[in-house]
Structures are given as structure tokens and as C-alpha cells.
Amino acid sequence: MAGKKELTLFGFFAITASLFITVYEYPTFATSGFKLAFFLIFCGILWFLPVALCSAEMATVKGWQEGGIFTWVGKTLGERYGFAAIFFQWFQVTVGFVTMIYFILGALAYVFDFKALDNDPLIKFLGVIVIFWILTFVSLGGTNRTAKITKLGFIFGITLPVILMFILAIFYFTKGNPIEIKFTMDSFVPKITDFSALAIFILAYMGVEASAPHINEMKNPKRDYPIAMVLIVIVGIGLSTLGGLSVASVVPAHELSLSSGVVQAFERLILQNGDGLTWLVKVLAFLVAFGVMGQVSSWIVGPTSGMYTVAQKGVIPKKLAKTNKNDVPVILIGIQGIMVTAWAAILTFGGGGNNVSFLTAISLTVVIYLVGYVLFFLGYLVLVFKKKNLERSFEIGGGPFVKTLIACIGLFISVLAIAYSFVPPSSLKPDEYESYKHILAISLALTTILPFVIYMFTAPDNQLHLKELKTLDSSKIDKFTHPMGRIRAEFSKKDQSGGD
């Protein structure tokens, strides 16, 4: 890690802010109505901040700067659990791709007036694998190519439509048009049964630990990092609340499609006075599809860098991480593609290709990642009580009691969200409950066991020396990519093996 201390408070904010512009989540948030504001505040304060603070402290422990969650959990709970944590962090993306492409298909179905693309299971499945594999082959050309797509997609396909949606929603409200939800205290505070949506809202904050290593580059981390996190959570709550409410306020709950809800919102906001601007809705739908496609393309290589790290250390066969001339780990990318194809089949055909498929996919994405966060918080508690003398440049103030309290709150919310995920959301019909629960339970059980089985049967591989990975300097971070999908490390220019 570079020894330069050049990252300002604003600079750190800039490399983390893209965490909250995830337009494909807005329809799912909207299913909770005005309660979405409560859940975003609840998760922001009681989950996001604990993750941000605990990961920052672990990232600054001397010798723990490289490897992220694999190192943090591995150094505290043991290598087996470190591998499981990084595995969950990668594996959840293979499910998340399906959710994102469902959203793309929903938008394209409107653009081309081809509804089967969004609701016919077979056509939807084919759509997912065609889009994903095309983007996968594009990514083999290296990150410089995908970075251009990501930047254009983020600016014109995400930021521009989101800003326009907010402006249109304000005009819609000020003109006295009908609003589909109630803004009252009763509709703000959820009932116990409403907490089945908790995991969905945690998704809005996942990935912040990816920015934690850059605290080592901050000029004054003890002062600036907590301030940056508070600013980020305020912005995150604001943007996600506005996005979710913009959809919930104009699209009736019984008509809301999770994969095309944003397009439905644009349709109602723009066409309220006639159909003359249908073309504009289609243009915006296409831009949004392009924007999320850019996000998918940027995520294909990024998360595999974590698995490359464990291969480089010999935890899994190093041959799995061999790269092409563009430094893309082609074997890991291929395995990832096979898993995405399998998930697309399970979720699309198992859920019927409708809201069940989308909601199961997004819930499964979250709970897999949350299992990794459970290990993360347990690892932090080990750091507090058993490794408290290790040198670090950032530390949560207040002593062991405050540290334990913060970690336990984050751990409790993580476990609570996993448990509540198995309570079918109210947005599903009663006859859809069983499909949702069965797919979620079986998939999570198998996924949780898988890394431990792999670790058990994978002998340490020390025969092949790969290029060393180093955490990316903040100046090289792609700010237009969500932290969960970023490449977090780069290949050392010194090739230890003398070849790829």
C-alpha cells in the first residue's frame, strides 16, 4: 500500500458515493410504501455505520491492509472462515447479476413492446444469459474497455434518469395529482411483520467495506473518516428514499412490477396528460437499461479479484486464477458465468419469471452476503478481545465497551435480517409464498456449506506463482462503479512466475 496520505474527506466521499445510486432497487423499496424511509434510516444507522467503523479499524491494523475481508476474518477466525467470507462476498454477485439483468429486461420489454421478455420464463431466461455472456466476453478485453461503458452508463443511464425522475415527481406532487401512498406516522412506522423487508433495505448499504482500505490514504482519518461516513449515510438515506418514494407515490402497489417499476413510474409521471410523449418514456427506459448494463459489465471482473487473492495464497488451486494478456482471470470468470447461468435457470423457472423470481433473487443476494458479514462482525469481536494490542492507525473510540456494542448491533441486525428474509414479503401473493421460501432456503443452505466443502477438499497449491495483488490506490478507483463491483486490487508489475 502506498504510504501517501493525500485523500481528503471529500475525496473519500467521492469514491464511496456511488454506493447509493442503484436505480434497480427503487421498485423493491417502493413495495414498503412510506415505511421505506423508516427502514433506510434504521439500516443506515444501525447497520451501515457499524460496518463502516469496524471495517475501517480492521483495514488499518498493521499487516492487514491487503486482502480485505479475507484477511480480516482469516486473521481472527482462521483461514477457513476467511475463505468463506470472501467466497460469500463473490458468490452473492452471481445471484445479483440475475436481479440486475431482470431489471434490464423489464426496461427493454417496454422499449420494444415485447412483454414476453419480462414475463415469459423461457424468453426471460434466454435474455439473461445472452446479455450476461455478451458482457462477459466484452470484459475479457480488460477493464479499460468496460470502464468506458460504465462511465457513460452511469452518467447517461443512471444519474440523468434519476435526476429527471426526482424533478418530474416534484412537479407531479405540486400539481395535486393523486398519490398512491399515505404520508402519516402510522404508515411510517412498520409493524413486526413488515420487518420481512429488512434485508432488502440493507442491500442499499452493502459494499462500504470495499472503501475501508483507503482510510490508510486519508490525511486525518481519526477526524475525517467518521465525518465522511455520517455524510455518506445522510446522502444515502436521502437518495434512496427519494427514489423509492418517487416510484411508490405514482405506481399503485397492486400494479407494481419489480423489474420494470422505474419505467412504470416514468410512464405515469410523463404521460399523465396524454400519450404524446411515449417516445420519451422509451428513450428513458433504454437509457436506464444501458446504465444498468454498464454496471453489470463493470461488476464481472471486479469481485473475482477477491477469489484471485485466495488463489494467489494457495487456498484454492492457483491455476483457477491464471489470467489472459489483459490481466483478466479467465477461468474464474468462466466459473462465474456458469454459476450465473445456473442461478438464472433456478430463479426464473422456479419463480415463474415474475415478481417471485425478482424478489427471491434480490433476497438471496442479500442473505448470502449477510452470512459473510456475520463472520466479519465475529472477527471484529475477536480483534477487540484477543488481539487488542495490534497496532492500528484508526480505532473506534470509547474503549472495548463501545466497540463491542457497535459490533453487536451490526451482528444482531445481520442475523435478524437473515431470519426475517424467510417471512414472505407482503408484496407476494399467498400462492407464491412456498416457491419463495423453498428456493431461498435450499439455495442459502447449499451456498453456506459450499465454501467449507471446497476448503476441505482443496489441497494447498504452491506449484504455480501468480502475480501479486496490491490494493488499488484511491486515484485509480473507478468512481462510477458501485463499491461491491469494483476491482479492489491490481496486479503487481513484477510477475513472480515469469509469465501468465
From TrEMBL:
GO molecular function, one term: transmembrane transporter activity
Name of this chain's protein: Amino acid permease
Residue intervals passing through the bilayer: 7-24, 36-60, 81-110, 122-140, 152-175, 195-215, 227-251, 279-301, 328-350, 356-383, 404-423, 435-457
Gene Ontology CC: one annotated term: plasma membrane
Tree of life domain: Bacteria
UniProt topology in membrane: Multi-pass membrane protein
Record InterPro entries: AA/rel_permease1, APC_superfamily
Compartments, record wording: Cell membrane
A matching Pfam family: AA_permease_2
